[in-house]
Amino acid sequence: MNEQTLIWGTFCLLALAAAILWPRLTRRFLGGFFILMALGVNLVYVLVDPAGFVGIGTDAPLLGIYAWAFSTIVAVSPVTLGITLAIYELALGTCMIIGGRAARWGLLAGIAFLVASTPLSTWTLPNLILAAALLVILRREPRSVAATTSAGGISRTNGEPQVTAERTAA
Questions:
Q1: How far is 165 from 152, CA to CA, in rounded Å?
Q2: For the chain, which ranges sit under pLDDT 50?
C-alpha cells in the first residue's frame, strides 16, 4: 500500500469517526472539503494538465471498463470531465453546507461520487470509508423539515432554524 493510500485512508477514517460523534459539524466540514476539492483540484487540474484526467482513469484502474471509458470517452475532451466534476462537487458541497433537504441531496450525491470513483485505483479504495461517513450522517440527519419541527413552529433540533406552516381547514 502506498503512502497516498495511507494518508487518504487515515483522513477517511477520521471523517467516519467524526461523523459518528458530530454528524452536523462533519457534514458541514465535508461540504467545505468537497468545495475545496472542486476548486483546488479539479479546476486547477483543468487549467494546468487537463490530459491528466485521462491518466487518472487509465494508469491503474481496478475495473477494465474504467480504462476503456477514460481512454476513449474522456480522452476526447478531458476539460469537459474536469469542469463537470468541479461543478458537481461544488453543488454537492454547497448542498451539504446548507442543511435540510439540500443536505440530504448533497450527501447522496457525495456517496454516489465516492462509490463511482473508487475503482479508479487502489489509492481510491478509502473512498468507500468516506462514503460510509456520509451514510452515517445521512442516517442521523432528520428526513425532512417536518420531521424536526412542531406544526407551525420554529425548531432548532438539528441546529438549523426550520419553519413549518400549520394547515388549517378551509
A1: 5
A2: 144-156, 166-170
Q: What end-to-end distance do the CA atoms of the chain give, in Å?
A: 66
Closest by alpha carbon to 22, among 147, 163, 133? 133
Burial 113-130 (b: 16+ CB within 10 A, else e): bbeebbbbbebbbbbebb
Cell representation of residue 146: 417536518
What are the residues facing 162 on neighbouring strands?
155
Give long-range contacts, CB 8 A cutoff, 24+ apart: 150-157. none
Would you state the pLDDT for residue 74?
92
SS3 (DSSP) at 10 = helix
Q: Which three cell numbers stand for residue 141?
A: 440527519
Sketch the domain layout of the chain as residue ranges: 3-163
CA distance readout (Å), 53 to 35, 73, 81, 113, 126: 19, 11, 8, 16, 20
Q: How far apart are CA 30 and CA 19, in angstroms?
A: 10
Give the separation between CA 103 and CA 49, rounded to whole angstroms: 32
Residues in CB range of 118: below 8 A, 6 or more apart: 62, 124, 125, 127, 128, 131
Q: Can you tell me the distance from the alpha carbon of 76 to that of 91, in angstroms, rounded to the nearest whole number?
A: 25
